[in-house]
Task: structure prediction
Amino acid sequence: MAEEIQRSCVATRVRRLNRQITRTYDELLRPLEMSGAQLTLLVGIALHPGVKAVQLGKALDLERSTLSRNLARMVERGWVREKAAGAAVELHPTSAGLDALRCAYPAWLEAQKRAALKAAQLEPLLQRKA
Amino acid sequence: MAEEIQRSCVATRVRRLNRQITRTYDELLRPLEMSGAQLTLLVGIALHPGVKAVQLGKALDLERSTLSRNLARMVERGWVREKAAGAAVELHPTSAGLDALRCAYPAWLEAQKRAALKAAQLEPLLQRKA
DNA sequence: CGGGTGACGTTGTATATGCAACACATGCGT
DNA sequence: ACGCATGTGTTGCATATACAACGTCACCCG
Result:
């Protein structure tokens, strides 16, 4: 029973891979004082200026309160501006945010390259699930 | 550039999948007051009684301090016993821990079933990485 | 024996995440 | 206009995670 879980648990594998991948991106983005989570949000906002927070959350499958707090940090940094729109909030990139995005691109490329190696571990993951 | 990141970022995809999978397991384990992370640790300890913490951490690619704190919670719950062994710590399951594991098995099975659906999203992930 | 070095765990601090509870706005129906 | 349901965001609390700094133990070497 315990053997079966250890052999085939999807959560264990996905979570471990997530740790490895997240560490890789965070390490390379750290000089820019940006996290992988923040990069994802910044990209989404830059590509869809004025997007409603709730839409962004649904696209990323992010809980409302998590998104709210992550955005607050990015507003602090001056990368994002929030604009009230009734009960909702519209998100806009600032020029500093777009600059940060440009600066992050080389680090992202390198992280993407390193991640490709670890992503090979995804395939056994899928095969064992069956 | 931003388009490229949104289209192909491995971290974004792995992290989103991790959120979905983790939520699934945590939701089903919640009645037992157990998390997916704790289940993984408990399984590892149950299968290798006396395992050194550092070994478990390496197997799961878990940072030392993270493991230390997660284990502390499980010791609190009475599922695990820590035994000093020089500078290291040996981990043993308690009988309550083994009981909890047995109780968790049906929930794990159900989570595993639900996760199989979402894991289909892993395949597009891999293909776009190339 | 004494000092240094490396391995291991813990503590401080920060981000990421989620659930539950609350607050607020909007819009609808009467 | 009133009240109610719904959608949206925020706050309180808890876990998971990582890095940096620190304390300790063990071990080895001179």
Notes: DSSP finds seven helices and three strands in chain B. Residues 22, 26, 35, 37-38, 62-66, 69-70, 73, 86-88 of chain B lie near DNA strand D (CB under 10 Å from a C1').
